[in-house]
Each structure stands twice: as C-alpha cells, then as structure tokens.
Amino acid sequence: MKYDVILSGVGGQGVLSVGAVVALGAMKDGLEVKQSEVHGMAQRGGAVVAHLRISDKPIASDLIGRGTASVILSMEPLESLRYLDYLADGGILITSSEPLRNIPDYPDIEVILSRIEALPRYRVVEASALAKEAGSSKTKNMVMLGAASLHLPVKPESLRDAIREIFTVKGEKIVDINLKAFNLGREK
Amino acid sequence: MSEMVLLGDEAVALGAVHAGISAAYAYPGTPSTEITEYIMAYSRRNGGRPLASWCSNEKTACEEALGASFVGKRALVSMKHVGLNVAADPFINAALLDINGGIVVAVADDPGMHSSQNEQDSRFYVDLAKVICLEPRNQQEAYEMTREAFDLSERFRIPVMVRLVTRLAHSRAVVRVGEPLEERLLHKAEDRKSWTLLPAYARRRFKVLLDKQRELHAFTEGSAHNRISLSSDFDEYGVITTGIAENYYMENIQELSYRPSHLHIGAYPIPEGKVRRLADCVKRLVILEEGYPFVEKYLRGIIPPQIQVDGKLNGRVGITGELDPDNTRGVLGLKERRGGAAVPGSLPGRPPQLCAGCPHTDTYNALRDALSGYSESIVTSDIGCYTLGALPPHNIIETCVCMGASIGMAKGAAEAGFYPVVAAIGDSTFLHSGITPLVDASVSDVNMTVIIMDNSTVAMTGGQQTVIPSEKLRKLIEGIGVDPEHIREIIPLEKNRRINTQILREEIEHRGLSVILAVRECVEIRRRK
Question: Whose CA is closest to A188, among A136, A123, A93, A138?
C-alpha cells in the first residue's frame, strides 16, 4: 500500500498542523510516513504545500512524483488547482469552498469551482460553516482533515488520538473544538 | 528503543541530546531553526539540561561551542548554510585545534532557496576545513549520524559537520531512538599549545591536520555510510548518489529493467577508493547530489578521463533548484511522468506577504511619505520579514544581500556622495551583524539614516527571542557614539503616520548619522500571548 497526499493552502491556514496530525495518526497505525513541508519566508500569507506520504513499506523520497498523488487536500480552492499535475489518474481533489483573497488578481471563484467540478473525482467542503459550528473558524483545517479522512488509509480513531496529542498543549477546550471539527468534516 | 515522529531537524536535535551534549548554540535561520527549538523544549522538560540558547550570530555560537569543547563538554552548533559564512572563521580554524569535547556543526542548506538568498553548498567548507561531514538521507540517519558525529569529533579531534538540506530538515518521519548518554564531565584540554593558533603553533597544528587526512580517508573508505553495490551484468553506466538524492534514485529505480552499479556517499571526505572501484566497471557515471556539483567536480581528479560524467556540469541534471523524483528521471533514461490533469496556466501566484497589522507596513508607509519629496533616494535593507518590502504593494527597499549589509552599504553609498540614503534593518539582524557597520558609520558621522525596525523578536523564523530586549537598544546605540539627539523613536501605527513621517524627514534632513527606532511588537507574537 502506498498513499500520497498533496496538502495545500495559504500560510496561516493550518496546512502544517493537518500534516502533523496525519503523520502521527499513521504512525499509531504502524504505518511508515513522510511529510515534507515549508517553513519561513514561504509561509507568510503565501502559497504553502506539503507532501505527505503513507505506506506499509519504507518510503524513500520525501517528495511525491508528479501524477502519482492519491489525494490533493486543500484548505483553499485556488490553491487546490496549483498542484493538479501531482494528482494521479483516479485521484481525488478535496478542497474547502471558501476563497482566501489576499492577492489583487484573485480569479472569479465560479471559474475556479468550475475547473474543480470538471475533474473526474472531487469534493468541495463548506468548511467555514462547519468550523464555526465546531466552535472556532480556526478549525477549518480539522474540518478538511475530517472530510479527507474518508479517503485516507489511517484509522479515524488514530487521527483523533493524534489531534488530542498535538493540541493538548493548547488546553482541553481547544482539543475538544478540534475533535468536533474533525467529526463534523467526517460526517457531513 | 522508542519510536517518534520527528522532523529531520528534530532528529538531529535528539541525536545531539542523546549524545550527551551539554550545550546547543545557534542563531535562528530557516531551515535549521527547529534543531535548537527542539532542544530548548527538551531542556525545559528536563530541568534545564542541556543548555540551549540563541546567540548573537553563528560566529558567536560556534565560538561558544568551542569553549565547551575546550573544557571537555560536547556541544552542538546549528545554522543555515549562509550562517556558515558568518561562522567560517571559527569553523575552519577549529579544524586546527585539538578538539576535546565533541563538537558538531549542523548546517542546513537550502537548495531551491525556499527561504534564503542563495543555495551555496556547505560541503565546500568541509573540504576547505579538511574535516569529516556526514550527510543523512533520512530522519533516522539524521538521528544516528548526529550521535556518531560526536564520537568521530572526539576520535579524530576535529569538528564534524552534519549537512542537512531543506527537504530533510523540514520533513517528518518515524525515528527509532536509542539510549541517551550522560553529559561529559568537565575536563579541560591539557595542551594549551594545541588551542593557541600562534603562527609557530599553528604550523605544527596544520601539519597534524594534514597528517590526519589519511585516517579520515580510511574512515570514510570503510564507513557503512558509503555503500557500494556492483552489478555483474550491466556496465553502460554506474550511479553515484549523495544524501537525500539517493531517495529520488530509489523512487525511480523500480522502472529500470537493469540494476546499475551504485555508490552512495553519506560520509566525506569522498571515498576515493570506492569511486575508483565503481569507475572501473562502468563506461559512464551518473551523479545525483543535492546542492552544487561537489562530488562531480572532485571526480575528475580520480577517475580515468575517458569515462563520461553525466550530472549538473554537463546539464543532464539541473544545476539550480532542488532535486525531486521527477527531475532525476531524464538522466536515468526514464520518460517524464504525466499526471491526471494539467495545472491551469492562468493561475495567479500567491507570494508571501507581511501579515495584516504588521508594524513594518506602517514603517514603510511613513518612510515612503518621508522620501516623496526627493527626486531620488536609496533604501538599503536586510534579511527578515521586512525584506518583503521589495514586493508590491510596498516596493520600497532596494537591496538585500546578507545579514547587516544594509548599514554598511548605506555608509558606502553615502560616502560615495549619494543623498538621501536610508538603511532599514530589523532588531535581531541589527544585533547579529548590524552593530559593527554602525560603529563604522558613527566614527565619521556619515550622512545617512538607519531605521531599526524593532518588533522585539526574530519574526521570520517563527518568533524566537532576540538576544537582548528592545529597551536596551537605545543605550547600545548611544554607547557606540551615535548623537543621542539623533536617536529617535517612532511607534509604527497608521494613526501615527504623519508624525512618523515628520520625524523620519527631520532625520533624513539631518546632515549626519541618525538612528530611528521603529518600535512595535510583531503581531504574530502578540497574538500568541
């Protein structure tokens, strides 16, 4: 089994937290995992991409090859298209519906969504509403992770354990809100 | 033995902790910052041991580690690749010393320049210093090699480098860790002549270093990090990989119908004997290495000239940027991989930008207003979040070269006769390398204006503490001789824009050196509190 995921979004949207949760969850399931990310200059409100690889065998490269990703999981619709050449035939694109317009030339959102809807497999998630329902708009990333968890080879309970472990330093309330966001994303 | 998910940086950090270091010294720099951050967090949970601290710059960090080594303790120094330029003096000279407690210099190169101004390859410094470098290819090796590097440092009595690249530094994987060692006991170096590089002593020490080279080569020749596998039925070409480049090779090798002979290099100096053995049984060599063509250049001195070398120098592998599973295919004769869909060509880029509410934005707005009355002006700048002032909508800074250069360059431009000249530098960058050029400017009261954008943190690398708090900056600047009347303070806020513009204008008009302290906390740090 080999499972490659492109995680994308904008700096500050919690792309790296999603990566960290999946990596820890996969480890709890006894899987091999590699997760490559960008820090520093590239993070400041700019496009962010992380490569996440899961397998039951040792993984060589930290980076995914073009045309081989099983999933593109994006926190933002424009960013979901930026790495489309990584998606394998039969792969699925999962993105939040809500645009983050921090650039002057952000395209018409309808055009972006129509590009997404032209793909053979895609899912657009109303993540903002679900995050608010969970208790904080900051949990959009965990909503997206919940939605993607249906397509990941990691047990949902392992992902929940990973959320608990990673967010525990921020307090019990934050853990609960993030778990709720994950569950809402998974169920709705 | 326990398992943990660690970044490559964190694996280095834990390897150092488990090797029994007493201290970790560093200046933050992407992609190396998480090494020291991890040790700091570890130390907090562990009663303050080992000591982990941010230093003024990479040179002071390296020298502090040398002090620890002098008294028999193990110490880790970490930095990004360009930090090694700053630390090059102690690093290269340390090779001449009789290293006592193990000293490991972990350097993270940034091929592709994700967050750097160049993509220099630290292995050239290893060659220059004539020491050992271990280059891990994954997180497990990052952990193990760091531990081993301390042993090697003490065995050969030299500093040892662990070379990382961004993709390993910032990639997470499961690491199986071993039993930690205790810290070393205090044990001062016995022979002071071996630590005093007076010419007469240094000549002797240089001879010692040169004599050691045979042992170092014997070590890398025998090291399991330099693995050779020879193919008996395929001689068209052989492959040399180094560090993480092997991963990309392994990723593609399944598609080959043959198995080329292969040498992987994870320990330097380059194992010449193994290179010759490989070269003896192939017609052509393919070199995959992350960074500059370091091994590739070296090869020409050790292999027969008729063997063709395919790599970065003849363009078969791209010479800029980083390697990946795709751009390593062509040289192996594999076709380009095709994805399920093409990226739409019309996507606008999303470059990094200053955060909403960032004080730098307000400083730049006031500066733009202050300079609007001059037909021409110069704004030199430096390394940090504020370098984004080069991009729209700010478009205000005109230079960024290396830490502290804004002030030295402003002085040079002003002394060449240009006016007005403004240098814009962050507080941490100022403390790193801005003080010395400001001393130069102060000595002759050069007609220039320095703006220290003091957000009380090292923001770009994630908000590390600056070495001295902001309130001490003014005293420091007064102390190096800047006229107190021309040390002014502004609070960069939109509501203060007019007064800030006026103050900036007054100091630009002042025919001599002025320093403006633009003081407001980083919004990101404030949010975290």
Answer: A123
